[in-house]
Amino acid sequence: MGKQEIPDIVIQRLPVYLQALNQLLREGRGVVSSAELGHIVDVSAAQIRKDLSFFGGFGKQGSGYNVISLIHNLRAILNLNQIWPVVIVGVGNLGQALLKYQGFSRKGFEIVLACDNNPELIGTSISGIEISDVRNLAADIQRLNIQMAILTVPAGCAQTVTDLLVNYGIKAILNYAPLVLKVPEGVHVINIDPVVKLQTLTYYLNAED
Known about the structure:
9 helices; Rossmann fold; 10 strands; Arc Repressor Mutant, subunit A; 209 residues; alpha/beta; elongated
């Protein structure tokens, strides 16, 4: 089965499973059942078994999953057995906070490039990364062989910057701009909009409580 035939929601759950498995490993667990894993991640045991069945069998009936083996398999499925270079486009407050975040390198991602069009930022360094001029983006992406981008620019220019990134060879974009981006087939976007998430949470709140 090709990657395009597997539902996106299944792929989105795999990192959640991986995170839970890593926690179990830190706790010294060697085996976990689908029911136990489902309880941790709030997904039914049947759904976990169905999700994993897209990629083959990883457990034995009645004996559960070997935690280390399943971690290795999920990392391989998610292409995490290498370090992925990433560019941050837009080095405002959010972009700077992401540059300072130390968690990326521990999870297989390395911020190797950050760029902006603000002359006051260009040439300065944040967490060891020198801010580049966005006008050099095409050459920098090619030189550093980057396929992933984090977009932290204002909504007004997000689509224009996205078009440039796609033209320069970017295949995956983590978008923090409050805008639904249009990209061609073969380019994948995940949107991170805190306001949308908060609006989802307010559904569960009762204003009268």
